[in-house]
């Protein structure tokens, strides 16, 4: 999959406002007065309008044609209708959005006003991701969510009535108070809705969330004492994979399951290493350079890839700072990414494509890692395709580290520099 030949781009736009903060959340989102929405939107529109000047200044290709748009958060469904129209007006003025573009908006159940829903349909939103996390009201409430099961079911009906039928429901395995039987109930309700897509995440906690801090130091306020064991979380994940598979939602990525033709086109961009532009707070971009490095005698090798990220501090963002962290990925780093992003997908890594992109020699040397991981039951190789095994999906970080160079491991802290 060559990034350099792409002629379309995906747009990711963040809206980092929420009505309450979930206990497990480590995103750059917060609870701010609605008056901030307008200010933030103005800033976001400025970024959209200056996208091509910015791309020119950092010497990256920015295709004019957009085939996926993803409004993530935060809670974009809190956007007032007028702001939704202003946002899409700016997108259409700057880019050419394909007629069949996938346009996704993340919504918090129970917080979608009729006027917002109409505005979404009017601007062409055709996919909605609902952050359900659990259909058990006490579990949702313990994690700081404001909705009940009935709110989710109502929203699914309302969205379908508005013509938005491409729906995703998120569930998290590992919420406080969750048991194997309550998890089974959440899965059953999800399947009853008949949605074409589900995302199943295993709870990941770190010190950037209130629940994570409490797990580290102890306490009851955020119900850290009721978080299931790692073994129970693994069993929940395995149960979900089995039940979803039996119901016709095939796993296509570690956390994602879909009926035929319903995989998220936008999210596939990330794993297929296709370009995307992220605008707004804490948004990531990956765009291909316009140039080959001087050292590239061989111009068939991939051009550098710019990975950059905007600030995660709202005040800083509102003052006008654009991308704050930027890294150029050259051939070696892109080769590593080809492995660990490719392996996330159930279709795996195609060795022939890797050879034509990066050269046979580099691929042959990586096959030593494949053999080693295969012996440990973490990957399997069938012909020219390497995939994660079910065990490998559970231990994916261990697998991905195998494809990182020593330099990257130092950067991630997995190897200490003495
Ligand atoms: S709704 Fe999402 S972004 Fe907002 S606090 Fe909860 S997890 Fe974080």
Beta-strand segment tally = 15
* Order of adjacent strands in the largest pleated sheet: 7-8-6-5-4-3-2-1-9
Structural class: alpha/beta
Taken from the alpha-carbon principal axes, the silhouette is: globular
In this structure, how is the largest beta sheet organized? 9 strands, mixed
CATH architecture field of the largest domain: Alpha-Beta Horseshoe
Name the ligand types: iron/sulfur cluster
Q: What portion of the residues fall into strands of 2 or more residues?
A: 15-25%
Low-confidence stretches: 409-418
Q: How many DSSP H or I helices?
A: 17
Helical fraction equals 40-55%
What is the first-to-last residue Cα distance?
Answer: 38 Å
Question: How many domain units?
Answer: 2
- Write down the CATH topology of the largest domain: pyruvate-formate lyase- activating enzyme
What Rg do the Cα atoms give? Answer: 22 Å
